[in-house]
Each structure stands twice: as structure tokens, then as C-alpha cells.
């Protein structure tokens, strides 16, 4: 039985926290050995657009900073992107409180900052029709000429390093692909491509969670079966045609 639930909402995102009681799993009944999962909290954040215009995410992050060592964080991502700096706040909270205990679900789409957030998680789960897109950042500045140049140069270096660490260092894009992305190339990926690149670690299909490797294996099997069925239908059609000609 789970504990009390709590909800906090910002303009674009919603955080649910739930207390999960201690759980014991039998490892060896004869030796009376158990695997014990201690009492902990599950934090689940539904991610929309990264576009907080009022007070920001103060209440959400304040709650997440109360997390203890056994608590874990889930992201349910359905996002078209938005402010990179807002997404970087999520990166910071993962580094501070949830390293090694973060799961992301690509619930429909993750574009731009939504894609980067997905890449931050330790376990990354997609569905058969999940959709992800990487592209370069957009930013600007205003002020005197020298100030604008200084600000743009500084921001570009920081954001490119941030993108590189999340995408290239993890092997999700090659160096060449990343360079093309920075100058304007968009990269669109479906569930199959996400699994092939190991961006997705798992896929949920018909109520079952498969590893990315198993999902790709199943796709190959279905493709082979479809090809064999097509071949059988062609042979059957040829046989019927021969009979008619006689």
C-alpha cells in the first residue's frame, strides 16, 4: 500500500510525490534471505513546454531538494521544447539529488529541450510511436555592440558544451552529426532509431517493458515474418494462375 500523495503545479509542469513503503522480495526462502527496498519517495514530473513566465519552478524544485538518498525521480515527457536554461535547472537537480536514480518516459514527443531532458535520465523508456528531435539552440542579446558580442560568444560556448556533454559524450550523435546540428541540421528519430542509437534503453509494448535490444530483435522477427508471408502469397497467386491457364 502506498503512502500519501502530494501535487505541485507550475505553469507548464506538474510534480507528484508519493511515499512508497518498505518492500521485501524473497531471494532464498530456505535460507530466509530477502532483498529489502527501504521506504522512499517517488517523484514524478509531467513535463510540458519549458516556458515558465511567472514565478518559475520554485515550488517544484524546493520539493525536489527535500529528496533523500533512496528517493528517485521520474519524468513523463511530452514537450516541444522551450527555454534551455529552464531545462538546465532540471539537470542541476539531477546532479544534486538524483544521480543514478532518474527514469524518463518519452510520452509521445520530446523535441529540443525535451529531447535533452530525456537524455539526462539513467533509464530512458519510449513507446512504439514516441518521437524525438535534436536541433541547435536559439538565443539572442541586446545592448551595445561589444556587450552583445561578448554575451553571444559566452552563451554559445556554454550551450554548445552542455549539448555536447548530453548528446555526443553519451554516443547519441557522432562528432560529425553534432557539427551539422550546430549549424542547423535537425535530427528526427522514431522508437526504432532511438533504440538503435541506445538513446532509449527500454520500450513499453502491449503492457510489457522490453529492453531496446529485445524490441529491435522483435521488429526484425516481424519484418521477416511479413516478408515470408508476402512470398507465400505470391507463390499461391502463381499456383492459382497456372491452374487457370490449364
Proper CATH architecture = Alpha-Beta Complex
Biggest β-sheet: count, sense, barrel?
Answer: 10 strands, mixed
Judged by helices, strands and strand pairing, the structural class is: alpha/beta
The shape is flat
Blueprint of the fold:
Elements (H helix, E strand, L loop, with lengths): L4 E5 L4 E7 L2 E6 L4 E5 L2 E8 L10 H7 L7 E8 L4 H15 L3 E10 L1 H8 L2 E4 L4 E4 L10 H23 L7 H8 L4 E3 L1 H6 L5 E4 L2 E4 H34 L1
Parallel strand pairs: 5-6, 6-7, 7-8, 7-9, 8-11
Antiparallel strand pairs: 1-2, 2-5, 3-4, 9-10, 11-12
Helix pairs in contact: 2-3
Overview of this structure, please?
With 246 residues, the protein is an alpha/beta fold. It has a single domain (5-245), classed as 2-enoyl-CoA Hydratase, Chain A, domain 1 (Alpha-Beta Complex). Helices cover 41% and strands 28% of the residues. It has seven helices and twelve strands. The chain has helices spanning 58-64, 84-98, 113-120, 145-167, 175-182, 191-196, 212-245; strands at residues 5-9, 14-20, 23-28, 33-37, 40-47, 72-79, 102-111, 123-126, 131-134, 187-189, 202-205, 208-211. Strands 1, 2, 5, 6, 7, 8, 9, 10, 11 and 12 form a ten-stranded mixed beta sheet that branches. The protein has a two-stranded antiparallel sheet with strand order 3-4. Strand 5 (40-47), helix 1 (58-64) and strand 6 (72-79) form a beta-alpha-beta unit. Helix 2 packs parallel to helix 3 (113-120). The longest helix has 34 residues, at 212-245. The termini are far apart. The mean pLDDT is 91.
